[in-house]
Amino acid sequence: MSGDMEQIYNERLKRYVAAMRNEKPDRIPIRPLAAEFCAAYAGYTCQQVTHDLDYAFDAVLKCCADFDWDAAVSNMVFVWTGSVDAINLKYYTKPGIDTPADSCFQYLEPKDDDAHMKEDEYDALIEDPTGYLANVWMPRVSRDVQPIGEPSTYRNNLAWLKGGMSVLQYFQRLGEQGARMKNETGTVSAIAGCLKSPFDIIADKLRGYRGLCMDLFTQPEKVLKAVDALAPHMMFNALAGADPDKNVPITIWMHRGCVPFLSLEQFERFYWPSLKAIVEEIWSQGHQILFYAEGDWNENLKYFAELPEQSIIFHVDKSDLFKAHEILGEKFCLSGGIPNELIAMGTPEEVKDYCKKVIDAAAQDGGFIMDAAAIMQDDAKIENVKAMTEFTREYGVY
Amino acid sequence: MMNEADAPKLKPGVCIPWEDKRKEYPQILGDEKVAQKVWEDIDMLAYIYIWFCLYGF
């Protein structure tokens, strides 16, 4: 790394970390969670960046170089078809194969009667979560992995081998990509480590949201025990991928805990206690958590205010950014809040006006990171992303 | 975070505990700790992969 690039990187890291600790850096850091937007900007299709890591990484690097962002995710198109196809996974549509090449990958929610975990399997999950996943869940979500007791096949054996090798390769390539971002563009790799709430995992990947909602009424105690059984594993895996230097945060991708997916009473009973304990434990080990709070979490903000000061960065999607600042701003950094529909359909002037409104209201004392409300896909207009970036660079100086 | 009674029977990070693998060896003539460390390190890779399939994609 050149001396100049090292200095730029260190300045950006200092700026980014200061904001995340709810302090006032020299200026507002810019950290877009940019996914297929990078592909569109670099001239690639969604298929190319979902399938081929070389395209995906090049697209991110081109954005880092051209937009001068402080931090970026090394590959926000997180579903790599190399790993998905290695096990012949059922629950994603792949751009260029299942859908047109210029469409984003999609998650397929299973039908109610075809959930990946059956309603009478809670005890097996609770008894041995890892064994359940390997022996029962994997054969259900993979077209190639055979259930225990069934004759093994060539495809079964290769699925385990290729799956494991592909993920190992992916982790290695992610590390290389982070080094390239640092050395070639002076950009901070924004996040490290992945956390999901135990409740969301049951809804997303095991029982399905509708199935789990029924379980809340028919077998609530089993759901609670399953949440408790999953919690230590979710925490372990989050910490396994965390930044050893404890600079950048673990990210939790929260989907289905907010109103109206769950009532506040259900949130208090099923969602929050285990997640709160995980956050407190991870924070006690020195890692912050970026709360990517997908959807509208206005009714839940008061619970997040219970967390230790600085322990999270609250990312605003559909939540009211100004209300979030009022309730959480004393303790935590906020990020995001620039509506994706505005970035997709508005004008640069409208984007700048909105950025000004956000900065004036929520970023005066530091503790704010500029970003779109949600992950930016290929519908984000380039001129509007430029407007958000350049306006913040000029107006966001403290 | 949780009561000891509620703690999982297998700790996070483990698929097949060393204690189970150890029973397959009538004796270990050298340093058992070396054998245990390598077993647990590789076992953890399998654990990480299985759970990554659940939460990572």
What secondary-structure arrangement, pairings included, does this model have?
The complex is a heterodimer of chains A (398) and B (57).
Chain A: H1 3-20, H2 36-42, H3 46-51, H4 53-67, E1 71-72, H5 81-86, E2 92-93, E3 106-107, H6 122-127, H7 129-141, H8 154-185, E4 188-189, E5 194-195, H9 198-206, H10 209-218, H11 220-240, E6 250-254, H12 264-284, E7 289-293, H13 301-304, E8 312-316, H14 321-328, E9 333-336, H15 340-345, H16 348-362, E10 368-369, H17 382-395
Parallel strand pairs in A: 1-4, 5-6, 6-7, 7-8, 8-9, 9-10
Antiparallel strand pairs in A: 2-3
Helix pairs in contact in A: 2-4, 4-8, 9-10, 10-11, 11-12, 16-17
Chain B: H1 18-22, H2 32-55
Structure at a glance:
The complex is a heterodimer of chains A (398) and B (57). Chain A is α/β, with parallel strands linked by helices and 398 residues long.
Describe the structure.
The complex is a heterodimer of chains A (398) and B (57). In chain A, 53% of the residues lie in helices and 8% in strands. In chain A, helix 14 links the parallel strand 8 and strand 9. The two termini of chain A are 29 Å apart. Chain A has one domain: Alpha-Beta Barrel (TIM Barrel). In chain A, helix 4 runs parallel beside helix 8. Chain A is α/β, with parallel strands linked by helices. Chain A has a six-stranded parallel β-sheet, sandwiched between helices. A two-stranded parallel ribbon of chain A has the order 1-4. Chain A has a two-stranded antiparallel sheet with strand order 2-3. Chain B is mainly alpha-helical. Chain B has one domain. Chain B has two helices and no strands. Chains A and B meet through helix 7, helix 8, helix 11 and helix 12 of A and helix 2 of B.
